[in-house]
Amino acid sequence: MSVAAGSKAKSDDEWRAVLSPTQFKILREKGTEPAGTGKYDRFKEEGVYTCAACNTPLYKSTTKFASGCGWPAFFDAIPGAVSRHEDRSWGMTRTEITCTACGGHLGHVFKGEGYSTPTDERHCVNSVSLTFTDKNGKTK
Ligand SMILES: [Zn+2]
């Protein structure tokens, strides 16, 4: 494990007990859901996206934007909630993003793509890594 995890870290066996096989593959083994298949890709309701593994709030719906990339896209995270790591897999250098609290893999962040957002960053996040909660506390 090269990724430093925070206070909500668990062993692989502990994660297997609480996550579905798909969640384990993406959050713990850094998998990627197929483009356009995630339930939050085109989702537009107001609320908060929390980590699907440890329930820490990661993104607000006010920072979500329609990137057209096939995954939920955010231009900023809740301060401190998301950690960045250099990822050199697949012959590319990318910036991986993880949940600071549990170390769960979220996706990657891309910068300078020209989207008209306040940060010009795109946090490209797997829907599987997130749980949405609306203003009334209802998860969707
Ligand atoms: Zn987490």
TrEMBL record:
Q: Identify the EC number(s).
A: 1.8.4.12
InterPro entries per the record? Met_Sox_Rdtase_MsrB, Met_Sox_Rdtase_MsrB_dom, Mss4-like_sf
Q: Which terms are listed as keywords in the entry?
A: Metal-binding, Oxidoreductase, Zinc
Q: Name one GO molecular function term.
A: metal ion binding
Matching entries from Gene3D superfamilies are given as: Peptide methionine sulfoxide reductase
Which is a GO BP term held by this UniProt record? protein repair
Among the Pfam families in the record, one is SelR
Q: Which domain of life is it from?
A: Eukaryota
Q: How is the cofactor bound?
A: Binds 1 zinc ion per subunit.
Which family does the UniProt entry place this protein in? Belongs to the MsrB Met sulfoxide reductase family.
* Alphabetical list of NCBIfam families matching this protein: peptide-methionine (R)-S-oxide reductase MsrB
Protein name (record): Peptide-methionine (R)-S-oxide reductase
**Organism from which the protein derives:** Sistotremastrum niveocremeum HHB9708
